[in-house]
Design a protein that fits this description.
111 residues; Heat Shock Protein 90; 2 helices; 27% helix
Length: 111
C-alpha cells in the first residue's frame, strides 16, 4: 500500500497528542528515521516516563489512557491501525531497563 496523507496524519497526530497529554506543555518529542533493509524504521521518544514493561503487551490491544476519564484511550490503537494499513507494524522497544518507547516499521516498497 502507498502511504497517504490521512494515514500519516493519523499516525503523527496521535503520537504528538499522546506525548503532549502525558508530559504536558513542556513536551519534547524525538523522531528518528532509519532504513533497515527493506523497511523504514521510525523510533519515537519523548521526555515523559515511557511505558512500563507491564504495558508492553496491552497498549496496542485495548483502550489505554494515562488519564482517568479525560482521554479517549484510543490513540495507540489508531496508530497501530494506520501503520497496519501501510503493511507495517508498531511495537514498543526498550531504550533502557523498564523504559519502553514506540517503534514503527513500514515497508519502503508497496507489496
Amino acid at each position: 500500500m502507498q502511504a497517504n496523507e490521512y494515514l500519516l496524519e493519523t499516525i503523527f497526530w496521535n503520537i504528538w497528542l499522546n506525548a503532549h497529554q502525558s508530559v504536558g506543555e513542556n513536551c519534547e518529542i524525538a523522531i528518528t528515521f532509519r532504513r533497515q533493509r527493506h523497511e523504514l524504521e521510525i523510533l519515537i521518544s519523548d521526555n515523559g516516563e515511557g511505558f512500563s514493561p507491564e504495558l508492553k503487551e496491552i497498549v496496542f490491544q485495548q483502550v489505554y489512557s494515562t488519564k482517568n476519564s479525560s482521554g479517549r484511550g484510543r490513540g495507540l490503537m489508531e496508530i497501530q491501525d494506520a501503520v497496519e494499513r501501510l503493511d507495517g507494524r508498531v511495537e514498543l522497544y526498550e531504550v533502557k531497563p523498564s523504559d519502553f518507547r514506540i517503534r514503527i516499521l513500514v515497508p519502503l516498497e508497496a507489496k
